[in-house]
Amino acid sequence: VNRAAAKEKTVGKRTLIGTVIDASTGDALIGVNVKVKGTGEGTITDLDGKFSIGVTSQTQLEISYIGYKTQTIEVGDLGVLNVKMEGDNEVLDEVVVVGAGTQKKVSITGAITATEGIQLKAPTSSLTSSLAGKLAGVISTNSSGEPGSTSAFYIRGINTFGGVATPLILLDGVEISSGDLNRIPAESIESFSVLKDASATAIYGNRGANGVMLVTTKHGKENTKATVNVSVEASYFQPMNTPEFADVPTFMRTYNEAQQARSATVITPRYSDEIIAATESGINPYVYPDVDWYDLVFKESTMNQRANVNIMGGGPKVSYYMSLQANHDTGLLDIPKAYSFDNNINKWGYTFQNNIAYKVTPTTRIDLRMNAQIGNNKGPNASVSDIFYQVYNNNPVTFPAYFPAEPGDKHIKYGNAILSGTSLYTNPYQYMLGSYKEVNYSMLNTSIYINQNLDFVTKGLKIIALVNWKSWSETSYTRWLDPYWYRADSKSWSPDNPGEYTLERLNSSGSEYISQSGIGRGADNTFYFHGPVSYTHLTLP
Fold first, then answer.
1. What sign has the CA pseudo-torsion 32, 37, 43, 48?
2. φ and ψ of 169, to 5 deg
3. How far apart are CA 15 and CA 49, in angstroms?
4. Structural contact between residues 498 and 488, judged by C-beta atoms closer than 8 angstroms
5. Mean pLDDT on 204-214
6. CB-count burial class (<10 Å; 0-12, 13-18, 19+) for 474
7. How far is C-alpha 190 from the chain's CA centre?
């Protein structure tokens, strides 16, 4: 009876062979326990880290070793299994990307700060805006709140050697710009290292004078099931610490006081009591305007959206990681639909990351890493910072934003006034509304790594060949209308007819038809090859 039961248990079994190595050093591990989960069957690895065991397609192997994390692996239809054991002491075995590969954190003597990509995740599509406060020694500032703006960041100050003030940024070993870095989703980043002092950046020569940022993207693991992660976010943005402007009567009276305080003699106030009273009463807002430029130009809040889908896993020879990120950002400009173009800020960006590794032979591995970024940006042909500057510098009583439309009008009657001579003021409302710009960009960064282990020559010798091709292109065009400027003739106004006034044209230009520029084009292609040989061999006393 016992023989029959034993025979029944072995039906459908096959022999699985495998190897167990240290994930960080690649050394074979001796005496690792390999056990069939839920049974008493098992084996241990030999002097070369190899083992063999009888399994079925439903078998789960539990692999454990002192000082390493226990792993549970589903066998499936595998005939050969390669297992990488990770250290159980996270502090001692934490690996940091450095200039010449990787190194355990405890053995680092240079000034290096490292973090995981998930630590940089924030409710924004701009990665560089998440650096502040996350990486010691990194100073990050953003002078614009416009969607998609790239923060300026420095490592321990600025060294102007060669005229370059920004750090060297490497994505998987290839140099990229701060704009490229800004569009990489935190979900795709495996590690983010910052090399800060001379001992850490020496390998890069004078190019590393301002520090070096090393960004490594995620990769799949061999013999693991596919894992799919999906995240969808909606962010609510509202300006903080916005300037508080005085009400119009207070502004006018304060201006008069300041004007008098600067003069040793009595002068005629710019704003008479009659004008202040008429403005305060609101009897005719086009002759005596009271314009809240900030409220007219900006919204109180806006909503942005982001979505990320990524999948990672691997088999005995192939591992993969693929990610798609979509960002939709809108701005705080409150632009009405006045023309055929809609120049509200509307930005769509897509980032695709594809990392595939294939083990050609036990000693040869090929990695393909591709980062693709495409996007479409629409908005006024003026930065939000410039628009805010005009809002901040125009006073509320010089002219109205626009005059009411009358039957038969074919253009908007923008308000304005004479600044000096033939020069006119800048109307913030028209400055925002009267132009349009669309930019389409694409960037493809593709790298092939060939990792050849040369242990058959001498143990610890390897060569890594890197071939990279980067292509960037951008097209843009603008549209605009030459405005019609008007001002109200105050002489036509009287207390008996407070709602009446006549308009005076201030310019001879102006167009009722949209003008469009030609299509501007820009492109750049870069080819890069790198083939270092490394030798790592530890000799114990």
1. negative
2. -115, 125
3. 17
4. no
5. 81
6. middle
7. 15
